[in-house]
Structures are given as structure tokens and as C-alpha cells.
Request: fold
Amino acid sequence: MKILTVVGTRPNITKVALLYKAMAKEFDCILVHTGQHYDKNMSKDFFQELDLPMPNANLGVGSGTHAGQTARTMLNLEYFIETQKPNLVLVTGDTNASLSGALTAAKMGIPVCHVEAGVRCGDVSQPEEINRKVIDHISTLNLAPTLTAAEYLKREQCPYSLTGDIMLDNFLFYSRKDFHRLTPTYKGFIYVTVHRAENTNGAERLAHIFAALDVLTKEWNIVLPLHPRTNKMLKQYGIKTKVEVIEPVGYLQSLSLTRNAFMVITDSGGLQKEAYWSGTPCVTLSPYTAWRETVDAGGNTLVEEITTDNILRAVKKADKNFNPAFSMFGNGEAVGKTLNALKAWSRANCG
Ligand code: UD1
Reply:
């Protein structure tokens, strides 16, 4: 079986790390990068540190509006799929790269495998939620990371299997690395990331977030690797901050920061889970989460309305003594189960 895997952003690359290497031993595999993320520290560095082969092609679509980015990816990918003739196109998660990959393949009559399918946060205005829903409904093989995701897929009548979360497999595998080497000087710190459209596309919300961080700097070191989108919007809105921001960090450094932090404050879905698995309390800068399990287990506190006071209250309120559990996310066996699902599909469909 020939599988064409589409990635385009940091989270797509880190998600497929172990899975792609395992698939490459069993199947004929091609890796395509859409070019959605293109800065070295948002893309190339991740391939190197995760020991992933560089993509067979980079479609070079770059940044733009959602329609522009999706349309350019689809046009370029259509040509590539035509020449490569894969049996299956595999996408992960909820980015525009994943949507474009799934949509192009489905329109060409090529079956799609969606890894991390069925995830919902309940806010249909978020670009990621739109992408998740569309991808699930056009995919042949939806692989659910949690029981909650499997239940959504069942309710929405999408075909699915429950495999567990490949992010947990990556987390457990790469956590064995020597972290002390990676977090040299930070002690007693809060690890912060902010980049989602809901928080950065309006001056008021972003100003509230940075005002809260400024207050926290009185008591804590804040380690904030700044996403280029947030950097751009801070400048555009003229928002000044006392936080000494740093350049975007790699996957291993991010895991290390997460495990060693007093607390994580974020709007990233993946980081909410990694904080939970690390036993580090997380404050999520949103009233919504795609990972409700982490909230129910006491490891994640949502901010109902983004104001400076509410963020500071959530930081105070966050439970500092919860016990993380891996079982809800498949105990680190998701890569094996995903591989089994792909083998079964191949036997049934590729002779
Ligand atoms: C995307 C995903 C989001 C994911 C995030 C991880 C979608 C809809 N969103 O958001 O779910 O959590 O990636 O980082 O796919 N930029 C650069 N250099 C780069 C990449 C981006 O400067 O290498 C800047 C550009 O100004 C661009 C902006 O960041 O317009 C936003 O990038 P984009 O890829 O559209 O969305 P992300 O915010 O990264």
C-alpha cells in the first residue's frame, strides 16, 4: 500500500513523528509538506530533532487567508497526488494543511485516514473546529484518540476506530531524553504560549492576556516562546509587555519546559495534554477545550471570559495536586493500534 502523509505545521510534524517512522517500515510512504509553516524554527528544526526524513515535496504555500491557503494547497497537492497515485492519504489533527490534504484526496476519490479524529471543542467559529468536522465527514478511516472522540464520531455517523492518542506515544518516547540539558537557567517559572486566532485577532483580548502576564512577572519568571503570529499582532496593536519573550522552541525543549514548569498557561490544544501528562497544572486561555478529559481530571482550568482578572483568578484557582492518568489517551499504544488499523485496511482494500 502506498500512503501519502500530508503535514504543514509544527503540530502535524510532531504528531506524525513516531507513526511515520513505523509506517515507513510496513508501507510505501511519501511525506508532503504544504509549506503552511516555513520559518526554520517552525518547521525544518522539528524534522531534524525528531529524526524524521525531510519531506519528499514542499508545496510552498506559505501564509495567507484561510481560503487562499487552502486553495493553493489543494491545487498544488492535486498535481502531486496525480503523479504519485497513493492508495490512501493520511492527515492528522485540525490544521488547514490537514483540511486541504483531506479535501483534495476525497475530491479525487482517494480514501483519507484521519488520525486524531472526532475531537470537538464545541465552538464552531474556531477554524480548527471547522477543519475537524469537515475532515471527519469526508474520511474513510477515522482514528479516535479518546472515548469522547469516538462517541462524537458515532453520533455524527462517521466510520471510526478507537486507537488512542499518538501524541501520548510521542510524549512518552521523547520524554526519555535528557531534559536537564535543555532547560538550563529557568527556575520557578510559568511556561506560556499564545497564538490561536481567537486570542490574537483582537486587540482587547490580547491586551488582557499580556496585562495578566505582566502582573505575574512580579512573582514568577515567565518563559514565553513567541509565535510569529502573536509577535506580528503585538506590534500591530502596539501592545507592550514586561515579559522577556524568546524565539519559538523545538518539541523537546517544549516538553522539557512543560515538565519543569510550576504551571502552563496556553491556548494550544496539544500543550494542554502534555501539561496534564506531565502533572503540571494548566490554565487554558479559552472557555473551550478540545480535551475535556484534562479538565474533568482536575489538571486544566479554563478561563470563561478572557479578562486580566479572570486569568489571574484561574492561575490562583488551578489545582496544583492532581494525578495524571494515561489510560484515557490509550496508554502510549496508539502508534501500534494505528498501524494495525492501516494494515487491516490495506488487506481489505489493496489486495
Ligand atoms: C496553525 C494552526 C493551529 C496550530 C498552529 C501551530 C490552522 C487553522 N491553525 O496556526 O491550529 O495550533 O498552526 O503553530 O491551521 N507565520 C510565520 N512563519 C511561519 C508560520 C506562520 O511568520 O513559519 C505567521 C504568518 O504571519 C501567518 C501567521 O503566523 O500569517 C499564522 O500562521 P498560520 O499557519 O496561518 O496559523 P497558525 O497561527 O500558525
Remarks:
- The mean pLDDT is 95.
